[in-house]
């Protein structure tokens, strides 16, 4: 009797679990209506680039000998064509479409193809390498188009869908969830103006420039890049948020370039030791390691060694948050900036400058440092050579010539050739400055030290035992 009752209980439990599983599966999103509605506005982009002929350059005053002239002079040979592909999508009925800059960069011809197999030649209205976005236009109207979400209110765990042409496979759809938001991924130029959306949506080569949708069918991001060891998707894909895309589109339409806010600072991350030495309870903010002398930050009163904790209304949790906030701020806007300075919080009104949309116009980063001494830190120092000063644009500090491998400086990672510009909260302009500050440093306390290595500023902490 007991066995029969137990058997009936197991059967009932199994049926109940099966019902629950089926019910749960019915709660999963049905992507079919979304894909059917949005895919007509997604395009496949094919580009053609003609390989440039290289020219032979001779030293001044030299000419090609007659016997070799027919071999070395340029000839009218056919140029080899290179083809590539990507994705994009219309953002208006009159033919404006959005894609990645790297999809169309250097292209001589751009052809877009819709899902209904119509094809159009496109022209470039403007490109923005810093955000990896490009605005194109085709000569047609009454085209299907997609709406960019006005606000970045997407949340981690939210369902998203991508449509594009991975590996040339036309109009493929994939789905996943948002894995993270606000990801900082510096470019090859070490610029970081895009707070990327990270997803586990399958994005592959050819998906670049395609839309990332929420379940309402609005574009929340433009698929831009992936992290991969194989060349294919491993579930780490990154999209440019729609708010960034809207700002870029507006400026490219208006003036063909994108201008951003600029502070004129070099920053670094704050680790636990630096946080302790600067009087913070936990690592947070962006540490100002360098200032452009005539830049907006310096002119507004920011100092090297300040830790920026809040910019306008945005909390700066890590150094990567600051470029996102500054770049999105209209130039010539004055904003409140909360900093930690010498253990105390201080709010400054900072007028944001302009980072031109023309990359060649970007202001050069200027360094600061220079001059001589030795000892408690385990160092031998001397004035900075004039050639180094000129090369690194140094104006004060001391050059490290020897490092005691058992000393405090060695523990802090200081190496010969570094130029020390700050000890504790004191700026080091001369050897006398260095000697005075070095002798007064307290024992057994972590203090910040700022130095330049190969022209790049860095903060560390140092402790004299």
From TrEMBL:
<dbReference type="InterPro" id="IPR036034">
    <property type="entry name" value="PDZ_sf"/>
</dbReference>
<dbReference type="GO" id="GO:0006508">
    <property type="term" value="P:proteolysis"/>
</dbReference>
<protein>
    <recommendedName>
        <fullName>Probable periplasmic serine endoprotease DegP-like</fullName>
        <ecNumber>3.4.21.107</ecNumber>
    </recommendedName>
</protein>
<dbReference type="InterPro" id="IPR001478">
    <property type="entry name" value="PDZ"/>
</dbReference>
<dbReference type="GO" id="GO:0042597">
    <property type="term" value="C:periplasmic space"/>
</dbReference>
<feature type="signal peptide">
    <location>
        <begin position="1"/>
        <end position="23"/>
    </location>
</feature>
<feature type="domain" description="PDZ">
    <location>
        <begin position="247"/>
        <end position="344"/>
    </location>
</feature>
<dbReference type="InterPro" id="IPR009003">
    <property type="entry name" value="Peptidase_S1_PA"/>
</dbReference>
<keyword id="KW-0720">Serine protease</keyword>
<dbReference type="Pfam" id="PF13365">
    <property type="entry name" value="Trypsin_2"/>
</dbReference>
<dbReference type="GO" id="GO:0004252">
    <property type="term" value="F:serine-type endopeptidase activity"/>
</dbReference>
<dbReference type="Pfam" id="PF13180">
    <property type="entry name" value="PDZ_2"/>
</dbReference>
<comment type="similarity">
    <text>Belongs to the peptidase S1C family.</text>
</comment>
<keyword id="KW-0732">Signal</keyword>
<keyword id="KW-0574">Periplasm</keyword>
<comment type="function">
    <text>Might be efficient in the degradation of transiently denatured and unfolded proteins which accumulate in the periplasm following stress conditions.</text>
</comment>
<dbReference type="InterPro" id="IPR001940">
    <property type="entry name" value="Peptidase_S1C"/>
</dbReference>
<keyword id="KW-0346">Stress response</keyword>
<keyword id="KW-0378">Hydrolase</keyword>
<keyword id="KW-0645">Protease</keyword>
């Amino acid at each position: 009797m007991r066995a029969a009752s137990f058997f009936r209980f197991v059967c009932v439990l199994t049926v109940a679990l099966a019902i629950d599983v089926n019910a749960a599966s019915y709660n999963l999103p049905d992507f079919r209506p979304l894909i059917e509605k949005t895919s007509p506005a997604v395009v496949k982009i094919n580009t053609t680039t003609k390989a440039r002929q290289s020219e032979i350059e001779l030293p001044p005053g030299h000419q090609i000998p007659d016997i070799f002239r027919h071999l070395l002079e340029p000839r009218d040979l056919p140029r080899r064509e290179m083809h590539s592909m990507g994705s994009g999508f219309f953002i208006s009925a009159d033919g404006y479409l959005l894609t990645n800059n790297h999809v169309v960069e250097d292209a001589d011809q751009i052809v877009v193809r819709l899902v209904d197999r119509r094809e159009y030649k496109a022209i470039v209205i403007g490109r923005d390498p810093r955000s990896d976005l490009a605005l194109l236009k085709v000569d047609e109207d009454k085209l299907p188009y997609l709406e960019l979400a006005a606000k970045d209110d997407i949340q981690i765990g939210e369902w998203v869908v991508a449509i594009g042409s991975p590996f040339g496979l036309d109009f493929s759809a994939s789905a996943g969830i948002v894995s993270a938001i606000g990801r900082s991924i510096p470019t090859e130029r070490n610029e970081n103006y895009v707070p990327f959306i990270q997803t586990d949506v399958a994005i592959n080569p050819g998906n670049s420039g395609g839309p990332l949708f929420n379940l309402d069918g609005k574009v929340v991001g433009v698929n831009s890049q992936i992290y991969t060891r194989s060349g294919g998707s491993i579930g780490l894909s990154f999209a440019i948020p729609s708010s960034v895309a809207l700002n870029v589109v507006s400026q490219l339409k208006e003036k063909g370039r994108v201008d951003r806010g600029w502070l004129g600072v070099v920053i670094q991350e704050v680790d636990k030791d630096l946080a302790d030495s600067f009087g913070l309870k936990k690592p947070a903010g962006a540490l100002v390691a360098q200032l452009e002398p005539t830049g907006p930050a310096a002119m507004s009163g920011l100092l090297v060694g300040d830790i920026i904790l809040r910019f306008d209304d945005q909390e700066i949790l890590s150094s990567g948050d600051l470029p996102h906030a500054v770049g999105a701020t209209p130039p010539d806007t004055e904003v409140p900036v909360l900093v930690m300075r010498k253990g105390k919080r201080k709010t400054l009104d900072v007028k944001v400058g302009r980072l031109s949309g023309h990359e060649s116009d970007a202001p050069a980063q200027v360094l600061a440092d220079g001059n001589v001494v030795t000892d408690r830190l385990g160092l031998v120092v001397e004035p900075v050579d004039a050639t180094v000063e000129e090369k690194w644009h140094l104006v004060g500090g001391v050059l490290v010539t020897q490092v005691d491998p058992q000393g405090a400086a060695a523990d802090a990672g200081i190496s010969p050739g570094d130029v020390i510009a700050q000890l504790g909260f004191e700026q080091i302009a001369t050897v006398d400055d260095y000697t005075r500050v070095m002798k007064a440093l307290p024992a057994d306390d972590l203090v910040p030290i700022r130095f330049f290595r190969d022209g790049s500023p860095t903060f560390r902490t140092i402790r004299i035992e």
